[in-house]
Structures are given as structure tokens and as C-alpha cells.
Design brief:
heterodimer, A: mainly alpha, 20 helices, B: alpha/beta, Aminopeptidase, 9-stranded mixed beta sheet, two-stranded antiparallel sheet, 34% helix, 19% strand, globular
Chain lengths: 430, 391
């Protein structure tokens, strides 16, 4: 049996077991672990415990970052700082509702950018922003769609873009030089999406008090220091670390998030940090679980040669087919592995086929397409999370109909970034 | 009454069920942690190196920087000294743990070489920490086994970076000392990105500092750092030389091609690429610094099933398919022949011998005369195992 046939058979077994586990509605991490074990068995490797455990640590640092960032977002929300920030934005910009709409989009994108998780972003700020959007006159289903896209684009935005990190990690490329292109494209696509979906509905005669009242009822009146200090500390330290790395001691981004939690707690001691941390960890665990499962799956793919099969297939495809495969592949793989998994499983082999162009820009384009995979049903984690956040009970297809065009446009932008990566190299700033 | 009884009966059942599943999961986790933990822990046992007749003394790297003593970076240094005066060559194996051929070549030198003039200093496991783990997502074996005339000898596979358990966390970006050039955060654990090192730096920087100190104090004339690379990496099957070593390197490459059929590209050490041994050791000391790269398919992304056979035989059908595509693979790959460990290890040994001979030709007062080291053709004919002693 040729190596290609052998690895195709192993891949078929992995996919079959994954699909059966998925159909049986097992958690994503179990689907991936079962597929990994089945792949190893099919390849004659037995149950390679060492490989399964070792693979789980592939994204260890990222998992710690996501967990700490999610705790920070939860504590900031609990302290009332998030509420205070949004209330300030409404007071300052209510006479310019279109600008306010764009600012609300950025508010959803920020936790996504910090945590790399669109799900965490929409769950953390979706209810608040959603109520503001509805108060501005935007229909609920449009508001859900805006929040969902905010989560997706937030996950794409800097500083933390998990698919880009995974691709960079997979080809031994530093995750450096990404900030400017990610910022430019996330703002253009994010704000464009918000305007496309919401601008025609926003009321010019915005009733500030009514909108403020429509936000979550329970909130503390806190000072500006309490509102802004946590954000200043976290963003300030991250910016300082990246701007003056030789001057600022680097103890890791998780420590910065924990410092943010400490500052919030010191300024708002009534916040029950332990309780909020436990709640937020529960929210973040599924994302962590996917990353842990993907790690094991990728390790077994490398062990059995399936990863090599992906690589040889990608690097021998003609360019046109490669681009088509990329567009369709990310959309479909997102339903199976989520954006993180598809970034690793598909993104790395595709990037190896694209090494003849600027790798940073090509990775930016691939990661953009990977992030939108979190909207693909039936998994659609970010889409469903947005419905949960805004208590929207209609079928997901109603949301999908609204997000489909922004998604198509973003994917086309993604593939154009890949194609014209060299011409866009000027955006890469180290 | 019946309802109360049903409730009373049901509750313990529910409680038992709710405890049973988590308990079973916890027990399974403990068993898995114990089993895999033992396997990972076993990687801390050093591979045996059997000092041969040419070893005159053994020291430790901490002799050159006391800060390494008692750390996972501590590693043996073997001295092979001749009766006649001459130059000094330092040979580094295992700068990157997973680059097996360099480690095997260093072990063969320690176990076989006899120096008649000058001296050879060999560090077979330069980054000892890198040998205590393997990288997640690579799926590589934890050991490889070499067949010998007396049985089998096992070597750890290792990784290119220091163990994160020994140096954590990685910074956002690795800032090379002293140039300040930036790299990926994980490169802070890459010995070959942190030269010349510093005494108060990270463990990996201290390791680099100790090696730089050794080069200074022992007045090393020539350094050979033995590596392996992916066949899809443009710098493979190459000898990279600092400008001070250009003449010696160029002559060696020509002689290897002419007399042994060993083909290597000669690559000048890029001035802007900081932290690598061929650049920094040459800049920081008067030594002639060189680095050799042989191709190892098990390190490439493009590979099929990854096991000991792939590491040793270096044959892969996917690589054979890729060879036909322009600009992808930078080595001459013949599928029937593969990129065998004997070929790769033999190449390193011939590079060592070639450099030693050229050094003596160009600088007679710094000659290093060595015997009983197999050349490329010997290793290909007899196998690596023929030159490994029984521990």
C-alpha cells in the first residue's frame, strides 16, 4: 500500500469517528480525542498516551492567556467598568448615532482582540452592546448579527489572533509584524459590517436616558478612575511591552491580565473576584477544551503522516484550485474544528504552499477566512453565543441570512490578501 | 409516603451517579498522568557516552560558568589531547537535541578519536535541557535505537529548544543580547539564537555564555557546530562559516567534493543574523567559527508516518513527490537511497576531519592531527553502530 493510500485511510477513519462522535453530540474535545485515538489505532500506533498528552500542551500558553483574559473581562464587567465605558460612549456620541454604532462594534471587538475568542467576547459584552443597539432602533436579529460579526472580527483583531498564531507556530515564524495589518483589516471589515447591517436603522433622535435605561438594569455608579484604570493598565502594559520590549520586563501576557484584575479589585473591592473567576472559567473552558483537543489531533496527524498528506496536497495544487480550496475549506472546517482547529489543521499546510509570498500577509489572509468558520452551522459557536447573549430565540438561519454577505465579502478580502500578499507587505511593521 | 420513599431512594442514586463519573474521570486522569509522567521523566536519564582511548580528561561546562552547576544545562566536556603541540578544535553536538546526526558524530568522536597533535574538545549534548523533552505537535519518537555489532544503543530524540519547564514563560519577543534584534518569543530557548550569552541571563543565555567562555579560555582555534535541517530549508547540506573561517571552510568543501564525493554548499555567515554560533562566536572571540547542516526529513513538515525508521532511514514518499517541484526541496533526494543517518553522520565526521586537515595545512602551528575517526564512506559502508562502544 502506498503512503498516500495509507494516510488517506487513516484520515478517513479519523473523519468517520469524528463525525459519529459529533452526531452523538459529544463535546468537541471528546470528538477530537476520539478521532485522534482512532487515527493512531488505524495507523498501527496503538493508543499512544504520550503523544495524546504531549499534543494537549501545544497551545498551553494560549490557553493560559485566554483563561486569564476571560477572567479580566468578567471582573471588569462585574465592577461596572464596562457599563460605565459604554454609558460614556452613549453620552458623548448620541448625537452621532452612526459613529456610536461603529464604537459599539469596536466595544465588541476589544475583548475578542484581547482573548482571541469571539465566543468569550460576545458572551461578555454582547448583552450590554445588544441592548444599546436595540435601543438605537436596530432590529434584534440585526443586532445579533452585528454582535456575532463583532466577535468574529474581534477574534481576528490584534493583539491575539489564534489562527494566525497557530499558523505562525506551525511554520516556525515569529508572531511578529501582525499588529498593523490585523488592525487595519479588522477595523475596515468590522466597521463596514456594522454599517452594512445597522446604519439604515439607527434613529437620529436618540433618547439617551431610554437607551441607558435599556442597558442591563443592575449597575453600579462608579468613578471614571474605576472605569478606565483597568483598561489603561492592561492596554498600557501590552503596548509598552510591544513598543519597548527591551525596557519592560516580560513576565507574560497572562500576568498583565492578572494585574488588570488586581487593579480592578483594588479600585472596586466589592467585586467578588473568586466567584466571577469561577463563572468566567466555566465560559472559557469550552474554548480551552477545543485548543487542547486540536493539539492532540494535530499531534496524531503528524505522527501518522496525515499532516504530511495535507501538506503535499496543498503544495502540489495549482494556484486557482488552491484558492478555491482555501475559500471553501475554511468555511467547512470551521464547522468541524472551529476557527482555531481549522487554522492549524488547514492553515499550516496551506501556508506551506504559499511560502513564495510574504508569509505575514498570507497568514493574515488565511486567519481572516479561518475566523469566519465560527459562523458555519451546525456548530456556529459565535453565532449561537450571540443569540444566547441577546436572548434571540428564532432559528439561526435568520442570523445566517444577515451575516452571509459580510462573510462572503470578508472571505474574498482574505483571499485577495493572500494573492496580493507581497504588494501589501508595506503594512508589516516590526 | 410512597413519594417520600421514592425521593429517599432516588437521591442517593443521583448523588452516587454525580460522584461516580467525576471520580472515574479523575482516576483515569491520575493513571494517565502517572504513566505519561514516568515516560517524560525517563527522558532526564542521560544517554551513555563511553570515553574512548583518546579521551585524556573529562570536565563539565560549569567549569566555565559556575552558574550552570546543578542546573539542567550542565553537560560533560570531553578533552582529547595529543602529545604534540598544535591547535584546538571545539566540536558541538546536540545544540539542537533533535538534530541526531550531529549528536551521533560527536559521540563517535569521543568514543573513537585519538589525537596525536593539538587537541579536540567535544561536547556531545550541548543543550542537555533540550534532550529532556520533545515538541508538542511534532509527533516524533522519544528515542531512536541504533543497531551495533554487540546489540542496540538507544538515544533520546530531544527537541531544538530548551525544555520550557526549565525556562518559562517565553517572552512576547526574544530580544537578542547584545544586538537587540528581535525574534519569536520561543527562540529565547534556542541556544543557537542567544550567543554570545550573558552570565546573568536566562538559563539558555548562561549556557551560551559558558560555551563562549570555553572558547576564550581554551583559546579554541576552530569551532564546528553540528546541526541538521529540514530538506525544505534553503540552508541545508551546507557549511556556514564566519568570514574568518572562509578560507578554511572553502578549501574543506572543495576537498570533500573532490576526494570523498561529499557535496556541501558553502554559506557565508550573514552579518545581520544575530545570536547564531557561526556569527557570535566568531565576533566575540578570535576563533574560526563554522556550522554544518545535514538534511533530516523527520524535522520537515512534509513527511509521512513519523517514527524511528524515518529518523534513521530518511525515506519518505511525500518527499519524493515534492522533489519534482521546483524551489521546494534543497537537497538531492533519491527515494531508494533516502537520507540515511549513516550518510548524515558520516558527512559530519568528514567535515570535522576536513576542517582539521585544512587548519593544519593553512596554519601548521595550529595543526590538529587525529586518527581512528571514520570518514563518510566508512560510516556509510559499516553503519553508525559499528563505531559505538558498549556502555
Amino acid at each position: 500500500m502506498s503512503q498516500t493510500t495509507f494516510t488517506l485511510l487513516v484520515l478517513a477513519v479519523m473523519l468517520a469517528v469524528f463525525m459519529v462522535a459529533w452526531w452523538r453530540k459529544l463535546p468537541n474535545i471528546l470528538c477530537m480525542l476520539l478521532a485522534a485515538v482512532a487515527g493512531a489505532l488505524a495507523a498501527g500506533q496503538g493508543v499512544p498516551l504520550r503523544h495524546l498528552v504531549e499534543g494537549m500542551f501545544m497551545f498551553f500558553d494560549l490557553v493560559v492567556t485566554i483563561l486569564t483574559a476571560t477572567i479580566f473581562v468578567g471582573v471588569v464587567r462585574e465592577s461596572g467598568a464596562l457599563h460605565g465605558l459604554i454609558a460614556d460612549l452613549i453620552r458623548w456620541f448620541h448625537k452621532r448615532p452612526v459613529l456610536l454604532l461603529m464604537l459599539m462594534m469596536i466595544v465588541v471587538m476589544i475583548p475578542g482582540g484581547l482573548t482571541g475568542s469571539g465566543t468569550a467576547a460576545v458572551l461578555a459584552v454582547g448583552p450590554l452592546v445588544g441592548s444599546v443597539l436595540v435601543g438605537m432602533g436596530i432590529p434584534v436579529v440585526q443586532a445579533v448579527s452585528i454582535v456575532a460579526l463583532g466577535g468574529i472580527i474581534g477574534a481576528f483583531a490584534p493583539p491575539v489572533n489564534i489562527p494566525a498564531m497557530a499558523i505562525a507556530n506551525g511554520i516556525n515564524m515569529p508572531y511578529a509584524g501582525f499588529t498593523v495589518p490585523l488592525l487595519v483589516f479588522s477595523l475596515v471589515i468590522g466597521l463596514g459590517s456594522a454599517l452594512w447591517l445597522g446604519a439604515r436603522y439607527v434613529r437620529r433622535d436618540l433618547d439617551v436616558q431610554k437607551v441607558l435605561a435599556s442597558m442591563a438594569a443592575e449597575h453600579r455608579q462608579i468613578s471614571r478612575l474605576q472605569v478606565y484604570a483597568p483598561f489603561v493598565v492592561v492596554f498600557g502594559l501590552i503596548v509598552l511591552l510591544r513598543t519597548f520590549p527591551e525596557l519592560v520586563p516580560d513576565a507574560g501576557v497572562p500576568i498583565i491580565f492578572m494585574l488588570g484584575v488586581l487593579v480592578t479589585w483594588a479600585l472596586s473591592p466589592k467585586v467578588q473576584v473568586l466567584r466571577v473567576s469561577k463563572e468566567m472559567l466555566k465560559e472559557a473552558l469550552p474554548v480551552a477544551g477545543i485548543l487542547i483537543g486540536v493539539g492532540s489531533l494535530v499531534q496524531i496527524m503528524a505522527l501518522t503522516g496525515v499532516r504530511g498528506l495535507f501538506v503535499i496536497t496543498a503544495i502540489t495544487l495549482p494556484d486557482t484550485w488552491l484558492y478555491l480550496f482555501t475559500l471553501v475549506g475554511f468555511a467547512l472546517a470551521g464547522a468541524l474544528f472551529g476557527s482555531y482547529g481549522s487554522g492549524t489543521v488547514l492553515g499550516v499546510p496551506l501556508m506551506l504552499a504559499l511560502l513564495d509570498r510574504d508569509p505575514v500577509m498570507a497568514t493574515v489572509g488565511l486567519s481572516l477566512m479561518a475566523c469566519y468558520g465560527s459562523l458555519t452551522p451546525p456548530t456556529a459557536v459565535v453565532g449561537f453565543a450571540s443569540q444566547v447573549a441577546l436572548n434571540h430565540r428564532e432559528p439561526y438561519s435568520t442570523v445566517l441570512r444577515r451575516v452571509i454577505w459580510p462573510w462572503v465579502v470578508a472571505s474574498v478580502i482574505g483571499i485577495l490578501i493572500v494573492i496580493y500578499a507581497d504588494k501589501l507587505r508595506f503594512l508589516v511593521v516590526y | 409516603m410512597s413519594s417520600q420513599t421514592a425521593t429517599a431512594v432516588q437521591r442517593p442514586g443521583v448523588a452516587a451517579g454525580s460522584v461516580l463519573v467525576p471520580t472515574l474521570i479523575l482516576l483515569a486522569a491520575i493513571v494517565i498522568v502517572a504513566l505519561t509522567g514516568a515516560e517524560f521523566r525517563a527522558l532526564y536519564t542521560r544517554d551513555p557516552i563511553v570515553p574512548g582511548p583518546g579521551v585524556t580528561r573529562q570536565g563539565w561546562l560549569s567549569d566555565y560558568h559556575a552558574g550552570l552547576s546543578g542546573t539542567p544545562m550542565e553537560t560533560p566536556v570531553y578533552f582529547l589531547e595529543g602529545r604534540q603541540p598544535g591547535g584546538t578544535i571545539l566540536v558541538l553536538g546536540g545544540t539542537h537535541g533533535n538534530e541526531i546526526a550531529g549528536r551521533l558524530a560527536a559521540a563517535i568522536l569521543v568514543e573513537n578519536a585519538v589525537v596525536e597533535a593539538g587537541r579536540v574538545i567535544v561536547i556531545p549534548e550541548t543543550n542537555a535541557s533540550a534532550l529532556t523533552h520533545t515538541a508538542p505537535n511534532q509527533g516524533v519518537p522519544d528515542y531512536i535505537t541504533i543497531k551495533t555489532p554487540w546489540g542496540e544503543r538507544r538515544f533520546r530524540h530531544g527537541d531544538r529548544l530548551s525544555n520550557p519547564l526549565h525556562q518559562y514563560p517565553d517572552p512576547e519577543a526574544h530580544i537578542h543580547y547584545p544586538s537587540g534584534s528581535l525574534g519569536a518569543g520561543s527562540e529565547a530557548r534556542n541556544l543557537n539564537r542567544v550567543y554570545p550569552g550573558r552570565p546573568d541571563g536566562t538559563l539558555t543565555e548562561q549556557l551560551a555564555y559558558a560555551i563562549t567562555e570555553l572558547v576564550r579560555r581554551e583559546r579554541v582555534d576552530l569551532v564546528l557546530d553540528m546541526h541538521e535541517a529540514r530538506p525544505m530549508n534553503p540552508i541545508v547540506q551546507a557549511l556556514v562559516v564566519h568570514e574568518r573561517a572562509m578560507d578554511v571552510g572553502a578549501w574543506t568543501v572543495m576537498e570533500l567534493q573532490a576526494f570523498e564525493g561529499v557535496s556541501l554548499r558553502l554559506e557565508p555567515s550573514p552579518v545581520a543574523l544575530r545570536g547564531l554560533s557561526h556569527r557570535e562566536l566568531g565576533d566575540a572571540t578570535p576563533t574560526m567559527s563554522t556550522l554544518a547542516e545535514t538534511p533530516n526529513i523527520a524535522m520537515d513538515y512534509l513527511r509521512g508516518p513519523t517514527d524511528e525508521r524515518l529518523v534513521i532511514e530518511g525515506r519518505d514518499e511525500f518527499m519524493a513527490k515534492a522533489v519534482g517541484r521546483p524551489g521546494l526541496v534543497y537537497v538531492n533526494y533519491e527515494h531508494e537511497k533516502g537520507l540515511h543517518i549513516d550518510d548524515r553522520t558520516g558527512t559530519h565526521l568528514s567535515v570535522f576531519l576536513g576542517l582539521a586537515e585544512t587548519l593544519g595545512s593553512f596554519y601548521p602551528d595550529r595543526a590538529v592531527v587525529v586518527r581512528d575517526v571514520p570518514r563518510h564512506a566508512d560510516v556509510v559502508r559499516n553503519g553508525v553502530g559499528a563505531y559505538l562502544r558498549q556502555p
